[in-house]
Amino acid sequence: MRIIKSIKDTRVVMGMAMCLVVLIGGSYFLIVSTVDVLIKKDAEAAALGWANYFSRSLDEIEQIAAGKMLSAENKSFIEEARSIGQVFRFNLFDSDGRIRLVSDDLDNAGRDDSDLAEHNPKALAVLESGQAYTVVKEGTPPTRPLLYAESYVPVMKDGRTVAIVEVYLDQTAKQQLFQSQFGATTLALVAIIALSFGAPTAAYFWRTRQKRKSDQHIQILANDAVERERMATEQKQRRAEEIERSQKIEASIRKFEGGMHAALTGIGGTVNKLEVVSTTLTSNAQDVSERSSIAGNAIGSACEDVETVASAAEQLAASINESAAEATKSSEVAGRAVSEANKTTKTMRGLSDAANRIGEVVGLIQDIAEQTNLLALNATIE
Question: How confident is the model at residue 88, as a pLDDT?
């Protein structure tokens, strides 16, 4: 983007510079053209004034143009007239275009070896139109000035052209005067043009620079906004991930608690069943013990009865012995039942201790679950 703006600014500068160069060049060309026109007009005016003075002062100009020889008085006047003002040379042609007088060669006045058409064809129109014709030329000193004008001026008598005067005027001083006068004007005009373009150009570049700074500031603010939005989006994503992770941890904890609760429920049911079985076995053992006691008492009574009637009923001895043997066996069975009941009681006590230890483990697991919940809550808050 900066490269594109730099190219655009370069194009603007080049465009303004070209316009400035064109305007300055056009102004210079216009001033040079104006100076040339002024020199030409000044030459025509000076030539016309000199020709009028020459024709009025030289009474025999029509006769001289017709070929009359110059008198001493006329020669003296012509020599004086040749140095008047800007004139440094002149020629005189008759009404037919034949040259009759050359100021540099007055002794050959009246010759007819050249005509106007041969000398300068463009000036031949002066005879037909009666209007003066002037051309500005550059010369080489000392034969010609650096800048001079050739002006062909018709000499009129009674409304008719009696002669053509070709006047050579030195315009070097005029050119320097006009150039010096218009030089200051040119410099002032160039300064005005440069100021006219320089001020808007400076204002344009100042405005462009300010706009560029504003664009950079806006771009920085836009980048900051984008960065803040990106950071907010990342923070939201992190929060969502933390929430999701906390939810997963809580779900795992709930699942673990459910499994532990089911396991503890199963263990509790088993313990309850073992307690019921232990109670049943204990009851059965007590019942057997009671029955054994009753049987022992009955056997004791029977023994006493037997001893009492031993003398009377020896035939019953065998039966009593057999009954005693059966009682002994019953006593042994009862003793074994009691022993088994004691073992069952010890087993139930071991199961009860195991259940207590399982309860402690469950309490420890619950403490761990509470600590895990607390850590998850802290992580969620962070």
Answer: 86
